[in-house]
Amino acid sequence: xxxxxxxxxxxxxxxxxxxxxxxxxxxxxxxxxxxxxxxxxxxxxxxxxxxxxxxxxxxxxxxxxxxxxxxxxxxxxxxxxxxxxxxxxxxxxxxxxxxxxxxxxxxxxxxxxxxxxxxxxxxxxxxxxxxxxxxxxxxxxxxxxxxxxxxxxxxxxxxxxxxxxxxxxxxxxxxxxxxxxxxxxxxxxxxxxxxxxxxxxxxxxxxxxxxxxxxxxxxxxxxxxxxxxxxxxxxxxxxxxxxxxxxxxxxxxxxxxxxxxxxxxxxxxxxxxxxxxxxxxxxxxxxxxxxxxxxxxxxxxxxxxxxxxxxxxxxxxxxxxxxxxxxxxxxxxxxxxxxxxxxxxxxxxxxxxxxxxxxxxxxxxxxxxxxxxxxxxxxxxxxxxxxxxxxxxxxxxxxxxxxxxxxxxxxxxxxxxxxxxxxxxxxxxxxxxxxxxxxxxxxxxxxxxxxxxxxxxxxxxxxxxxxxxxxxxxxxxxxxxxxxxxxxxxxxxxxxxxxxxxxxxx
Length: 506
Prior knowledge:
It contains 14 helices and 17 strands. By secondary structure, it is of the alpha+beta class. Strands 1, 8, 9, 10, 11, 12, 13, 16 and 17 form a nine-stranded mixed beta sheet that branches. β2 and β3 form a beta hairpin. α13 packs antiparallel against α14. The protein is globular, with a radius of gyration of 23 Å.
């Protein structure tokens, strides 16, 4: 499907370490203060490489300095950014991209050579790029660039190619660039300074193609502890605090006149993962018992303080493109769950519910789920693992665990997390060759109706057999100080999420 501008496919001690809010001289574009934003930090091994963005702060810094060809809307469809238009040929194996007229921070014009270099760099295993798997089908030898025009050749039809170009970690970099210690981008802010594990400072790009940002400077302040981020916001030391849990969000709301809560509903899918290839959940009767035995409404009410939505074992929510319509809600049926446990000979079977501090909701959810499963005859014991190694540990040795996934386009979620080859994100051991086949058919057809049907079949199969239970979709919460304007509630990974080029601190 063609894409154009009109139609695009679809803590006090911690606070002591935070310096006082600094004023900065104004300039063209308005706004007289440096905007300081607090994110969980990545430590001394951080870099500013826009293609290696494992953490939220990495993605946010990349957005400040660079731009991608497309971006994702709140519905998780593609919209144009550096690309003015993207048009496929009839086969879906060649895509013609017309770039907008803009320049790098050093004054050089953006060209198609930059785009091809970027795709080559992302696909190169040596880069360890976050989005590498999305571009394995790009034939760089057969691709061509001429000024602002690019023709990207693919080895197989892919009518969702523009969607991949908006994924985190796909920002365009200058051709030939090898060192991102002092990055040069096309984005709304120019690099000033950065110390791994410390602040990153950027200055307004007055020549930005989408308008100069109101704030003359932007500073990313690393505050790993969530309570310390909240404290920095409430004390006026930062103007923005990223990723707040429900209890903190309630505190922000109670500070009317001093702070504002920006909350994007149905932004994060909260998973209870059951390993289908290990006992006791290798028995589908035990999996089904857990599925209908947990009290999702109580989990939302207690763990999320009523601010989320009851999950239905489907990723995302009704606002996303390709989300299945009219799927009945999974009911709670304690008696049926008990009967299934007895039938499977699993009464009083003991197992661990693995959790960590990676998400503040995991541990309270594990405690409540253990109580609920006791009602159906299962003995689950929460066990807290080290956050640094949690996700690899539950892949290697877990039988049940908690994870979360921020909003993604449904095709991206399936393509990178639910195919047989998706080992890094496989927390249940589920593999299904029919899902692989349906996904290949979905991206190869130009018929969006046929694509929707294939993707719906995939989601039905995952819901019924994958062992990945979505107990809730939680809101994405950030706090902003009074007087901060130009920041919108936005779903994670969308173009507007963690973006500050329209924000003003005064």
